[in-house]
Amino acid sequence: MTDPRPSSHDLQQLQRLFLRAPAAVAWLDGPQHVFRFCNEAYLRLVGRRVLLGRSVEQALPELAAQGFVTVLDGVYASGQAYVGNEVAVELDDDEGGRRRVVDFVFQPVRGEGGAVSGIFVQASDATQRVAAQSALRESEGKFRAITNSVDQMIWSTRPDGFHDYFNDRWYEYTGVPSGSTDGTGWSDLFHPEDRKRAWAVWSHSLESGEPYHIEYRLRHRCGHYRWVLGRAQAVCDDAGRIVRWFGTCTDIQDIVDAREVLRRSGAELERQVQVRTGQLLQAEEQLRQAHKMEAIGQLTGGIAHDFNNMLQGIVGALEMIRRLDVAGRPGIPRFVDMAMGSAQRAAAMTHRLLAFSRQQPLAPQQVDLNALVQSLRELVRRTTGEAIEVALELAPDAWPTECDPNQLESAILNLAINARDAMPDGGTLTLRTENLTLGPVRLGPNDTLPGGDFVRLTVGDSGTGMPREVIARAFDPFFTTKPIGQGTGLGLSMVYGFARQSGGYAAIESEPGAGTRVALLLPRSSGETEPPMVLPVEELVDGRGQTIVVVEDDEVVRTLTVETLRNLGYVVHEATTGVAGARLLNLLGPVDLLLSDIGLPGGISGKQLVDAARAMRPDLKVILITGYAQEVLEADLVGQRIGLLRKPVLIDVLLRKVQEVIRGG
For the chain, first and last CA: distance in Å? Predict the structure, then answer.
């Protein structure tokens, strides 16, 4: 008979396999859980320490403090395996400790008599996977937030035309259940007479890659069919292959009605002119709005292109991390950095979009424009290069202005870089300041700049200049004359949005061959400017049990914030709405800090929550967080002793702000 017991050679071979396994493996013996075996991956996970012959409580006391020995006792006593998924573990090491997220299994090992004699441990480090998944969810959330922030119906398809995304406006307009129009279901909403024609145009665009443009009747939620304008643009990869389609739908029923009126005879039009005057004026306004929607279509295509690149960077890096992890090869940190870089690019793009739409949170203050320009001279000179001379023509009596100095510096550098690109063979870059007093200035059909005192900053170059058709579109979002990959087209639109949000405006003067001059007009500020005070960066220290209430509706952001604060020693209570936050504050005793998002569901904003809380707790310390202006400026909050942070905020910055406010800074 063949002996069923493994041979010594088999046992040695099995031991070698466990030692080389990519997953962390260990064998714990007896009710004291003494280490009898652990492989190299296990030592890397817990930190290189003396384990063999010692119990878990002796070798890894921090795990005992976190309840893992209690779990091992339960497995040993019950004989039932224990599975942990994405469990946070605090490990001690020579650098003072580190936090990991681990997947693990505690499997009881039975002796010859069937009684439990030990526990087999298998674990894998899921920290990077969990962090990368969180970053990807955040990036996708931002994309959905952008598409849902516009009035346009926006949709997206795969390269074959399969519809897999519609924004909220689509479902609000059509009244159909979410997801019911995915695939080819959207065509059921077309008027029966328009379906064949619409499918033919769409099929041609899918085959040729040409933009999709059509007018058809779409069933409205009220049950009637209304005319809409459909547009779509293909997004291609570097090889020219279509990877996605992004499209928009615009209600043009009023425009179609207006066309019908215009097609009537002159006599009929004359007869109806008095009764239809109001309707025609409204239709003309809708027509102007339709032209504006073309810019939204261009905006959608630009967002789709850039966000696809950023998502590709994150997804590609995560795929490489997965492959390297499975293969047990080094190099994962480099791809983590790539994913983080793409996520930071997405955050920077969001800030530019907010600047263009005049919805970025600003911190306006009195600024000495001459002093700011002089302080930037060396940076501008290094940015433009030695072939370009930087000249300053500063009015000695230039008034102080009221604006966000950080955004103004960013605008000046944007204009300097554009000027540099317009002077490839060198030239002169001139920064000029002067005082102006203006009457009301009409900037557009519905946009007028009130008159008053302004300070004008002009950034001029002696470069190639621009023709009129380029000047007319220079401030449009995503419009750029630079080659693909060398410019997003958001620079000048961001500058214009910043100027308008600051109470001024921007203008361009240029001619081919005669250089370009971009002027920023900023409102005059009353009073004397004060030099900025530079404070040293405080060291980050642990809390001492202070009580903090966190109010945030986003689960990922709230969890990260709460866990980080708790790990630093703070006592944290959390709520998801303004109503829940107010109820929590009413139940608690002393509270050292309220940390709340401004935009909250449930009818009470973060600012309203603060006002209600301070009615009962006048000295309550507060930090508000926002990624959107919402008509709340930092200057309005300073007098109310409210700190402000802008999303996305780094954890280190958040913790330092918490430390500063609690200390009374």
Answer: 82
SS3 label, residue 549: strand
- Which SS3 state, helix, strand or coil, does residue 578 take? helix
What residues does 120 pair with on adjacent strands?
27, 107
495 and 417 Cβ atoms separated by less than 8 Å? no
Question: 146 Cβ partners below 8 Å, 6+ apart?
Answer: 303, 350, 353
Closest CA to 129 of 383, 320, 329, 353: 320
With 0-12 / 13-18 / 19 or more C-beta atoms within 10 angstroms meaning exposed / middle / buried, residue 521 is buried
In DSSP notation, 445-480 reads TTEEEPPEEEEEEEEEE-S----HHHHHHTTSTT--
d(CA 646, CA 626): 5
3-state SS track over 181-203? CCECHHHHHECCCCHHHHHHHHH
Residue 385: left (phi > 0), alpha (psi -120 to 50), or beta?
left
Bridge partners of 108, per DSSP, are: 119
Tokens 């708790």 belong to which residue? 566
114-147: per-residue pLDDT in tens? 889 899 998 888 888 888 888 877 877 777 777 7
pLDDT tens digits, 613-661: 888 888 899 998 876 544 455 545 656 788 888 776 767 778 888 888 8
- How many residues would you count in the chain? 665
Token pair 């569901």: residue:
601
| Measured CA angle at 655 (ends 561, 357), to 5 deg | 75
- What tokens does 445 get? 């059909």
DSSP string, 493-534: HHHHHHHHHTT-EEEEEE-TTS-EEEEEEEEB--S---PPPP
Q: Are 45 and 123 in contact (CB under 8 A)?
A: yes
